[in-house]
Design a protein that fits this description.
Largest sheet: 5 strands, antiparallel
Distance between the termini: 94 Å
Order of helices and strands: EEEHEEHH
Strand content: 15-25%
Radius of gyration: 27 Å
Shape: elongated
Number of strands: 5
């Protein structure tokens, strides 16, 4: 069986695969790369790394490049399955973010008003002393 090598790239960083794996054909190697990208997606997010900047370069036994699998394909695959749900979720996230920003701004204004009132109160107290 042919051996395939899965070099991992993130931005300009490359981690070469020195061992490789044996598969019957390129299609099986692609499926393995895709499955590996799916598994790595959550781990990368937990490390606060952007999986969309990652990819596998899959090479044959002579180290010839066969294909590149951008991790973005994992996300693209999800979009095809549930575009309506994803858009609703995105809309909810945007609405929540806008609400949080509005509340934060209002709270900031209230604190500023409170500080001004305290400053005036201190000034009045100092005048009476």
């Amino acid at each position: 069986m042919p051996r395939f090598f899965f070099d991992f790239l993130e931005a300009d960083e490359r981690i070469p695969d020195h061992e490789g794996m044996e598969f019957a054909d390129v299609e099986q190697a692609y499926l393995e790369a895709f499955h590996g990208a799916q598994e790595m997606w959550a781990a990368l997010l937990k490390q606060r790394r952007d999986p969309r900047r990652c990819r596998f370069e899959v090479r044959d036994g002579d180290r010839n490049l066969l294909f590149i699998l951008p991790f973005q394909e994992v996300l693209d695959c999800c979009r095809d399955r549930a575009p309506v749900m994803l858009h609703k979720t995105l809309d909810q996230v945007c609405a929540t973010a806008n609400y949080a920003k509005r509340v934060k701004d209002e709270l900031h204004d209230e604190f500023a008003s409170m500080r001004a009132t305290l400053k005036q109160s201190r000034a009045l107290l100092l005048e009476k002393v």
